[in-house]
Amino acid sequence: MNTGLGFCRKDFAVKKGDFRGNYARVTCRMGTCGTIPLPDAGASDRLSVSMKFLFLPKTWAPAVLAWSFLLLLPFGRSSELSMFIMAILGGILVWKHGKSVVWEGGARTFSLLSLCIWIPIVLSVPDSLWFTKSLSTALTFPRIYLAGIYLIWMLREGLVRERLLKLSAWLMLFWVFDALVQAVIGYDLLGYAYPERLNGLFGEGNWKLGLTLAMLSPMVWEYFSRHGAKWQLALAWLGTAAVVLLASNRESWIVFAVATAMWVWVYARRLGFNPLKLLAPIALMVMIAGVGAYQLNPKFAQRVDQSAAALNFSYAGLETASSERMHLWENALMVMESHPVNGAGVRAYRYAYPQYAKPGDLFISPDGTGAIYAHQLLLEVGSETGLIGLTGLLVFFVIFVGSGCGLSKNPLAWGAWLGAFAWLFPINTHTALYSAYWSLLTGWLLAVSSARCPSEPAT
In the structure, what pLDDT confidence band is assigned to residue 284 with cuts at 50, 70 and 90? Predict the structure, then answer.
């Protein structure tokens, strides 16, 4: 058995916890997992047994480590811990295997995608309006790449992919259950109250539940479409849809709609019938659910009324519907015009914004800084990394869209790819691509979507 580090199973009995000679013997529920060569005494270049365990594909360790990133997402920056551990393991793989681990199979796709984002970040640093932040962003971005390399390496094994899909699906269902409890009784299972938007485990003042769930929902649908009854799949979709709607994040509504339309189309084709026969009743159910939520939930109704202001197609109406973002986007265009080549610097938009803001602008803070980011993917990339960043983003989309062809045969990769695509869908408002939370989550999804069996070709 290949452990991922080049160590092989020996032909002798395997007993749990048996350490003999220079080998540690391990077992698991699936049967014999193999043997791990123990480090020689005083050999500084050897890994600890516990770390080697994370490279054994037949144990639960790799899947649980990958899943722990999702598990910790609602709790502040704690998900950085999982990413940090995976980055260390990815660095070990690169050090030991070199080019083969970063330029073969899906790792090549992931490497190219990462370069399309990272190179513009680096080139925006020299004349950034917030040099220290841009520099720290450029220096810390590789942790996402190295963690992705570890994920891709371990997810070559079908057993790891199956376990990660199962763990992720059930975790999302727990999020759904917790959020629905909050919607019904006013408090979730951890005691968080229901504020103006449903936020579940994410807690007070943290509005990431709706968008995060919208991005991860395709993995739930993939799991139940292949391992559950059709009524279970329908229930899973209705649960995720209800929470995304009640979370009242309009970006997440579009992400969820894009993901649903694309997933249903592929699912219907898989079953051999016209996708419209499935999309039509889903659209009807969404309309009925939306009307019901509008009547019963004042907080949801307020968001709908605000969005409906755009229907008069006036500047004032669009400004109201977009939460005052029209003039924010005008400002971003002016920043792009003034910094056309490499932008104002990654994460430095808050210092560029005041230079073009009108007196009394509501996005100007007491400390003199402006809006943190442009709230639209193309404008964020253009204003912070300039034409270099937009060119990189264009190449990114070409590679990324191409990598999705034929991916539906791999349920985990397909669900992750669809979640990332729906978030990156350009006709929408967006959270910050370069922020820690969203760059980590999109990086995780991109890595998982890039994972291939050794026999699968990379796009």
Answer: confident
pLDDT, average across residues 257-263: 95
Give the separation between CA 420 and CA 446, rounded to whole angstroms.
Answer: 7
DSSP string, 38-94: PPPTT-TTSPPHHHHHTT-TTSSHHHHHHHHHHHHTTSTTTHHHHHHHHHHHHHHHH
What is the C-alpha to C-alpha distance for residues 354 and 359, in angstroms, rounded to an integer?
9
In whole angstroms, what is the distance from residue 193 CA to residue 203 CA? 8
Taking alpha carbons only, the member of 203, 285, 204, 208 closest to residue 248 is 208
pTM of the model: 0.86
- The mean pLDDT value of the chain amounts to 85
Q: Give me the residues paired with residue 35 across strands.
A: 25
Element (H, E) at 24: strand 23-28
Pairing mode of beta strands 18-20, 31-37 = unpaired
DSSP per-residue string spanning 310-361: GGG--HHHHHHHTTS-HHHHHHHHHHHHHSTTT-S-TT-HHHHGGGGPPTT-
